Amino acid sequence: MTDEPIDIGVLGYRFMGKAHANALDRLPMFFEDAPERNRHTVIGRDEAALADAAETLGFEHTATDWRDVVEEVDAFYNLGPNHLHVEPSVAALEAGTPVLCEKPLAPTLAGAEEMREAAAAAEVPAACAFNYRFVPAIRYAKRLIDAGELGEIRQVRGRYLQDWLSDPEAPWSWRNDEELAGSGALGDLGAHTIDLARFLVGDRVGEAASVSGHLKTFTDERPVEGEDGETRPVTVDDAYSAQIEYDSGAIATFEASRVTEGHKNDHTIAVHGSAGSLEFSLERLNELRVMTGDARGYETVLVTDEDDPYIDHWWPPGHVIGWEHTFVHENYEFLTAVAEGDDFSPSFDDAYEVQRVIDGVERSDAEGARVDLN
C-alpha cells in the first residue's frame, strides 16, 4: 500500500457529491486503516457554484473541464449525470486513473460495453457505485445465502418505490430525458434492485437468462423550472415491472416507480429458497427478517452486533447506523483497492451485467415479447 495520499478528483458536487464528500470526512474517524486521501479537485460547469462547493465539500481546486483533471489525480469519481458517464470514465481509465462511477453505468448498453472494455484494458480498479451492497444487513444476508441456509434459491422479489414525480407539476429535469438519462425509474431505481439481487444470489443462480418487461410513462410533459408556461417532454418511464428467469431456473419479479404516493425511498428485496427466506427493507436498514430451519415464521435480526459486517467500526452494539454510512463503507473499500492495486466489486463487469438486464427490459417492452439475454 502506498503511503502517499490519494488525490481525488470528483465530477459533480450536488446530491452524490455531498454523499461521497461526507463519507471521506468520516473515514479517518472510524476506519483508522483507511488510506490517506486528499480532496484535490471538484469539477462542474458553473464557476461560482464550484467555488462554493469546493469550500463546502473541502476540495483544494476547481475545474470546469474533466479533461484537465483525469490525468492529474490518483482516483476519479464520476458522479455526473448518466450521459457523462462514458467519455470521462473511459478517458480516466486510458490514463491509468482508477474510476468510481455512479450507477447506472451508462445510458445505453453500447456505452456500458465501451466502459467495460476500457476497464478490462486498464490495470486499475474500475468501480460502479451500487452503495446498497455495503449495508451491513445485506452483507449478513449474503453470508446466510452463501452458507446454504436458504437451500436452493427459487425466487427473488424486489421493489423500489418513490413519489417525487407523483405531482404532474413537478419540474422537468435531466432525469426525465432519454438522451441524458437513458431511462427513468428503470435505470435510476431498478438498477439498484437488479444489482442487489445479483450480489445476493448470483453465485447460486447464475446470470439473468431471459426477461419480460413493461415500461409506463404517466406524465408526458413537465414544466420547466423558472420558465413560466414552458414545458418539456418526458421521454423516459415513470415506472417499470419485469419478470426474470436466471440460468438455474430461479425467477425474479422486480418493479420500481417514481410516482407511488406515500413512498419516499422504499427499497425492499426478498429471497426465497427451498429451506428458508429472508427480507430486507431500506426503510428498516438495520434489520433483516429471516426464516430458516424449523422456524414457523420470520425472525427479525437486528444487525448491529460488533461481529456483524462493518459494525465494529461504528458504535457500541445495538446502536443503529444510517443510509449515509453505506458510502463510508463503499469509499473505504474502493480507496483500499486503489492503494493496494486490488480489484473492486461491484466492478464495471458487474455493472455491465445490470445494464444487460435493463436493455432487455427496454427491448421486451418495445417488442411486446419476452427477450432472451443469452
Q: Count the helices. How many?
A: 9
CATH domain topology of the largest domain? Dihydrodipicolinate Reductase, domain 2
H-E order? EHEHEEHEHEHEHHEEEEEEEEEHHE
Decide which structural class fits the backbone. Answer: alpha/beta
CATH superfamily of the largest domain: Dihydrodipicolinate Reductase, domain 2
Overall, the morphology is globular
The CATH class of the largest domain turns out to be: Alpha Beta
Spatial order of strands in the largest sheet: 16-15-14-13-7-12-11-8-17
Percent helix, as a range, is 25-40%
Rg, Cα atoms, Å: 21 Å
InterPro entries: Gfo/Idh/MocA-like_OxRdtase_N (IPR000683), Gfo/Idh/MocA_oxidrdct_glycsds (IPR050463), GFO_IDH_MocA-like_dom (IPR055170), NAD(P)-bd_dom_sf (IPR036291)
Keywords: Oxidoreductase
GO molecular function: nucleotide binding; oxidoreductase activity
In brief:
By secondary structure, the protein is an alpha/beta fold. Helices cover 33% and strands 24% of the residues. The protein has a 9-stranded mixed sheet. Strands 3-2-1-4-5-6 form a 6-stranded parallel sheet, with helices on both faces.
